[in-house]
Amino acid sequence: MMAEDIQHNQKANFNGLTKSAKSGASKKLTIKNFKDRPELTDSYTEDTWIKLRDAVSAIQNSTSIKYNLEELYQAVENLCSYKVSPVLYKQLRQVCEDHIQAQIHQFREYPSSSLDSLSFLKRMNRCWQDHCSQTIMIRSIFLFLDRTYILQNSLLPSIWDTGLELFRTHIVSDGAVQSRTVEGILEQIERERNGETVDRSLLRSLLGMLSDLQVYKDSFEQRFLTETNRLYAAEGQRLMQERDVPEYLHHVSRRLEEENDRVISYLDQSTQKPLIATVEKQLLGEHMNAILQKGLWMLLDENRVCELTLLYELLSKVKGGLMTLLQAWRDYIKSFGGEIVSSPEKDKELVQELLDFKDKMDHVTQRCFQRNDNFINAMKEAFENFINKRPNKPAELIAKYVDSKLRAGNKEATEEELERILDKIMIIFRFIHGKDVFEAFYKKDLAKRLLVGKSASVDAEKSMLSKLKHECGAAFTSKLEGMFKDMELSKDIMIQFKQVCVRRYILLNTQMYELYKMVKLQEVCKLFYLGKHSGRKLQWQPTLGHAVLKTEFKEGKKELQVSLFQTLVLLMFNESDEYSVEEIRTATGIEDGELKRTLQSLACGKARVLNKMPRGKDVEDADRFHFNSDFTHKLFRIKINQIQMKETVEEQVSTTERVFQDRQYQIDAALVRIMKMRKTLSHNLLVSELYNQLKFPVKPADLKKRIESLIDRDYMERDKENPNQYHYVA
């Protein structure tokens, strides 16, 4: 119990005893009726003092007081009224000092065995408690003296402060007593830190004593912090070797909670800041790099949200902790993401793995790192860094991933889910430097989807274009948007062409699918188109054509919706029921790879209108095919999907080369634009300007080649005296 608490409780006990005396003193501090005042004589003064001294001694010895407390209070007031306050104060101080001096012997003579340290602390606490209660009782009797003479003399301490001063001077300031008291307290705290149960009320009372006596910092706190530093330095070294990082983090958190609880329970509030700083320094600051090197990547790999949150909270308390964590976090993302991007064997799963990794890192920043902007920005920088370590390929794969999601037949997601996927893809897309590579492959795939009607949703297509337009500007999507306009225009042209066919070639309808009639119709279409659009060249894409065949099976009549190559193969079975692969190849002229995919779709898919001998999934040169008249299907019109040929290496290289060619044109245009505006520039400034204007990565060597090309073509020239200086040639 603190001294202030004791003082408060004791005051409450004596309120009733001194009520009338205090009431008189608080009004005028003098006796109104001077006739009732006893005559001042030496004998009266002596007798009164003896009475007061006996009362003080009784209080100090815990015996009963012979006199009425109100009478004693009145006696003090009488003596003060007779102007003997200085003598009375001096005598009271001497009596109290004599008593306290006598108390020191019990502590000096106390056994020094470590087993007696707790009993020593209890005796010290009992002495302190007694002293506080005695001082409060004495003060209640000498209250008039305390509120008049002592209050009017600022150099004199109050009776309570005098009691504290005497106890500090004669008891606590004794070297041996103070040392033993502090060592005993430290021993109890160490026991508690080791898991033992201690008397917290005893520690609270003794540490309150040191604080009240104003020796807490000098006598206790410094030694306490030194011992704390020693303890946790050793503990940190030991546990970092013995425990894994999650277990160590929970231990540190528990230790910090324990130390905060000690401050609340018995330590002085002023100790909290240096104490917690000491624990954090020894358990976290000294091992920060080791904790991150040993455990951060493991925590992130295993998605240990709880421990990552704890790690962030703990390191945020240490100077430089979050910056160190930030760097380790950035390094992890670069390393993990770099492995995803740099592995060609993982190209099929690359985009999905990037999306999953981004989701995982977003979850960590939101749940564990409190959405700290520094960590979010570091994550973006790290993604941008590793994703461009492998130029062009990620952009190409992202375009193909979008194609797989927007292509018809993708039943993995609803429209809402598809929209969310596209939003996530756009986040990854922002990190790519070579967006022109993405544009080239996206454009090629979009054209295929639109031409063969394989787009899953026009709304989804337009939503993706809108996102690209918002991200890269209208110039980036102008050609892509033009494709949709071309498709609308194509529909109108085909409607007009069909009308022409109805008017001029109506007789073709009866035998329209015979080969020579199909060729004839193709010529008619060519003439029709060129007649409407002079100066254009019409290029046919036979792989993208389709037709509807009317067929008779034993089950009945069916309509087959098939590709042009499937049409050519099936029409042969009007002449004969069976053909070899070589016979079909010779008759149709279809390229070998395309022919095998066509036969595979007709004989090995879900709708098997041809039978293959021998059976099997793959088509070989020795196989034979015959018409399956027993074919059955619940639908009248059946769509037989052509097996799509994967993008060839040649197509991929061709697309990439077109991108590089376009880049050269853009570099040339940027060079001319800059030189025309600046007229004269040094090589370094010109290159710097180019990097600011170009929106794709380019090597300095490539820029040098383009500069040389423009010099050869007389768009610019070198300075005759300074070869690193260029001039624009008008």
Automatic annotation (TrEMBL):
GO terms for cellular component: Cul4A-RING E3 ubiquitin ligase complex. Residues 393-603 form the Cullin family profile domain. GO terms for biological process: cellular response to UV; DNA repair; proteasome-mediated ubiquitin-dependent protein catabolic process; protein ubiquitination; regulation of protein metabolic process; rhythmic process; ribosome biogenesis. The keyword Acetylation does not apply. GO terms for molecular function: ubiquitin protein ligase binding. Keywords: Biological rhythms, DNA damage, DNA repair, Host-virus interaction, Isopeptide bond, Phosphoprotein, Ubl conjugation, Ubl conjugation pathway. The keyword Cell membrane does not apply. InterPro entries: Cullin, Cullin-like_AB, Cullin_CS, Cullin_homology, Cullin_homology_sf, Cullin_N, Cullin_neddylation_domain, Cullin_repeat-like_dom_sf. Pfam families: Cullin, Cullin_AB, Cullin_Nedd8. Pathway: Protein modification; protein ubiquitination. Belongs to the cullin family. PANTHER family: CULLIN. This is Cullin-4A.
